[in-house]
Amino acid sequence: MGIEVSRDGTGVVTVLLNRPEKRNAFTMEMYQAFGAAFSQLESDDAVRCVVVRGAGGHFCAGSDIGGFGDDRDGRQQARDYADFTLAMTDRLKNLRHPTVACIEGACVGGGLEIASMCDIRIAACSARFGVPINRIGITLDYRELEDIVAVIGHSAALEILLEGRIFGAEEALSKGLVTRLADDDAVAAEAYGAAERIAGAAPLVNRWHKKFIQRLRQGGTLTPEESDEAYACFDTEDYRLGRAAFGQKIKPAFVGR
Hints:
3-stranded mixed β-sheet; alpha/beta; globular
């Protein structure tokens, strides 16, 4: 129970949020385990793609409100809580490997934030979304807002927060909150199909592209060193393998070097 990590042998790793009786709402222990899992994955060159999903037909209902009286009683304690939990989830956001969110059922509050940190977000048609925290009188801090705004923009983020309503997958798609939809019984296959396509491609290139897009989001002028990194791929063994395989009309077996 909590956070479970499994591998399929092709470089696809699953991080399962496994507390189905609470719709996978996070406890402090789960945040710690989540951060530890992604720290290990960060340094593992065998990882090609990570799928984040929830157990029991739900993605994640955010943080467990039942623990707020112990963990977020007053301004300073709430700030300490945010510093810790966001340090853990930032390990997903900053992971160098590509990530896919497989979203079923509830994806609300902190669950929506976690999904927004993934590179590709594939949702079941019956999935539900929202950040209804104004119903319990709390705010997101600037770091959390920044993650959501980066995905859906200022206006849509404000709409979600001001109304605090739960909305469906079609609306989530229209807002850009999810990448694409799949029938409920096909969403896992769709998510893992995407992960397998990612895993079959050149891993260094995927990591570079993720890094480059994240850098462009930050804005500002690229340094000469940053601009030059876009050509580092031409010195890799994977480039030579890919070029040779293309000429032979076969699928390349990339080695990540």
